[in-house]
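Pasting as-is:
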Amino acid sequence: MQFQIFNALGILVKEVTIYLTTQIDISNFANGVYFISVKNQPNQMWVS
């Protein structure tokens, strides 16, 4: 699965290919609002 994190301005700040037990370290991110996009198949995407 492809995992992307965008800041409130829509700028991609992190992109990771995730597997069953992948952990994503966001401890160095500034406080604020972030959006997450997860794509698990070529034509499927969820944005939260």
